[in-house]
Design a protein that fits this description.
Elements (H helix, E strand, L loop, with lengths): L13 E5 L2 E4 H23 L6 H26 L4 H6 L8 E2 L2 E2 L7 H19 L3 H25 L14 E3 L2 E3 L2 H20 L8 H17 L11 E3 L2 E2 H25 L2
Antiparallel strand pairs: 1-2, 3-4, 5-6, 7-8
Helix pairs in contact: 1-2, 1-5, 2-4, 5-6, 5-7, 6-7, 7-8
């Protein structure tokens, strides 16, 4: 096998230790994802002359980060952990970074849960500060894929969310089995490809809210495809007709994106 096939045997998911705490590459990638998304948002605000100040944007991203963390963690616990009842009856354990006295960080986040937290935080922010909800969401549609790339690379470096068993030349050796590097497929399709499409399409936007609807549709299509190469979640497996939980949730998100797009388009055509 090549060095690439055995990359996990030569790569430590811990980047360095600081004051006795291990700092993982995943954590570094997560920070880069946030900073990258914020930098992209500021770029588009300036480039496209969107009426949002830097101070407002910084404040909004603080709200969104709280919503994303809460939504992603609670979503994982409710859908994927298999221990939802234990967590919700011991809520102090939800964000407990220690296991048997060892600092291990917070493990287990759900993208679809993060979406719910993100939307709730955005709704509350727009209500409090009287901002245009759909304009802000369109800006997020341009920024999220840019940051999302780093998040999926972080999953790969953290040696989690493995792909299905495969014999393709670029497969990764995971505990003795060759598997698709599905995290990188997701980084490319759900991050790079979607970002490029929206980057060029934004100039043709017809109404506020169109970009976030297109993002929802493109993301769910990309995620649905990538799930065919990703190992189903432990404890859940295939949910219905050999579809994974990620694919089922993607179908729901796809339907919501199409429905909201039709609704917004109809409203704007009647104005």
């Amino acid at each position: 096998m090549t060095t690439w096939n055995n990359i996990y045997n030569h790569f430590d998911p811990v980047a360095f230790s600081l004051f006795g705490f291990n700092v993982h590459w995943y954590g570094i990638m997560y920070v880069l994802a946030l900073l990258g998304a914020l930098a992209a948002a500021k770029y588009f605000v300036k480039k496209d002359k969107i009426s949002i100040t830097d101070a407002m944007l910084d404040n909004y991203f603080f709200w969104v980060e709280i919503g994303v963390i809460l939504g992603a963690r609670l979503g994982y616990i409710a859908i994927y952990s298999g221990e939802a009842w234990w967590y919700f009856t011991n809520p102090w354990q939800i964000f407990n970074p220690f296991y048997n006295g060892e600092f291990v960080g917070i493990r287990g986040m759900s993208y679809h849960g993060a979406v719910v937290g993100f939307l709730l935080a955005t709704l509350l922010y727009c209500k409090k500060y009287k901002q245009n909800l759909w304009l802000l969401l369109d800006l997020c549609a341009l920024s999220i894929p840019f940051g999302y790339f780093f998040g999926r690379v972080g999953n790969f470096l953290n040696q989690e969310l493995f792909g299905r068993v495969s014999d393709v030349p670029w497969a990764i050796n995971v505990l003795g089995a060759l598997r698709h590097p599905s995290q990188l497929y997701e980084a490319f399709l759900e991050g790079v490809v979607i970002f490029v499409i929206l980057f060029f399409y934004r100039k043709y936007k017809k109404f506020h809210g169109e970009l976030i609807c297109i993002y929802a549709v493109l993301y769910t299509l990309a995620r649905f495809i990538c799930e065919f190469y990703r190992e189903p979640d432990v404890g859940i497996g295939f949910v219905f007709l050999n579809f994974s939980m990620g694919q089922i949730l993607s179908i729901l998100m796809f339907s919501a994106g199409i429905g909201i797009y039709i609704f917004l388009r109809k409203i704007n055509n009647n104005i």
